[in-house]
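Notes to self after the Tuesday call (sharing in case useful).
The group wants a holo model before anyone commits to mutagenesis around the pocket. I volunteered. Ligand is D-malate. Logging inputs and output together so the record is complete.
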Amino acid sequence: MFKINDNFCQLAESYLFSEVARRIAAFKEANPEAEIIRLGIGDVTIPLCPAAIEAMHAAVDDEANAATFRGYGPEQGYPFLREAIAEHDYRARGVEIAPDEIFVSDGAKSDTGNIGDILAASNRVAVTDPVYPVYVDTNVMAGRAGAPLAGGSFSKVVYLPVTAENGFVPALPEEKVDMIYLCYPNNPTGTALTREQLKAWVDYAAANGALILYDSAYEAFIRQEGVPHSIYEIEGAKKVAIEFRSFSKTAGFTGVRCGYTVVPKELKGVDSEGREVGLNHLWNRRQCTKFNGASYISQRGAAAIYTPEGRRQAREAVDYYMANAALMLSELRKAGFEVFGGENAPYVWLKTPDGMDSWAFFDLLLRECQVAGTPGSGFGPAGEGYFRLTAFNTLENTREALRRIVSRFA
Ligand code: MLT
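Result:
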């Protein structure tokens, strides 16, 4: 009999957001009249902006004509998009990233999951805790995480707690690690790192031969000065970091799918013989073999976000969500909750009342307020006793959810 990949048997029964969806569906079935407001998975609600829609319509027309038809595109992404990214996301912030260091994809979830293909199975992984579950689960799949432990952690993963006690700033690891996942602005806590705090990580990686996998999917939500938008704003980062970006939250592409990953040419690892190998070359090789590029239509839509109208329109949607986040912070505080994040990210992270565990609070909120969120413990052991709400719903639904929560808890 053929064998399966045993590592998959180490995973929790279901992916966090699938479990949340399952519980909501079960509640809805038992209570069909319930008007559930979903502040759980970070999915956007504002339709794509007109600039992206027009560009995608035009791209569909291109596909309808022999003269403009596009079949397989470059696996790395079309030059029109790679150049726009280099110009607007990097050069405009004083960072030089060449278009051939940018790899367009179908989103940051796939890329943060797939990047492990080019890294040794023996590498020691560090994650902040709580953490976006994709980083841990994909390392479990690759056999890097070790054995599952009680409480949902894994024996070989180094967990760096981020809690109210340390102001949500992870301490540098005490033991030797090789791969460090950082997501800033952070999912799930909604908190950010300052330039100095991020510099400590770049310096650590340089001094210890570690690689930083930097997920900046939420950079468009940054409001405060002194919070870096890209890890490459920090000197020396091109030698130690890969950066992941997404159009999902920035421009409403959760359904359309488009994102990108930056792998600088300066970034080098060593093979088992100790020889230096460039990661840009390896990732290019991986993508050419396993990926045929994001669709032409998605890439045309994404490129439209960099036109003056596209930028303004996308910005308006981000501002709308951030106004929701501000309302959530003030109303939840009124209701007596201790709340964090929400100032540079579309996530609000709250302490559950009376030390209630995260899933118990999930059930209570669903049952008594018909509001769905995400239990903090689903993001890691240090998330226990916390709960995440997203700012991605409509203002009307956000207001109504807050009204229900305030009247239940204030
Ligand atoms: C989340 O809710 O954490 C995100 O929507 C998940 C994702 O981006 O895949």
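Two things stood out.
Residues 41-43, 109, 132, 187 surround D-malate (CB under 6 Å).
The chain has a mean pLDDT of 97.
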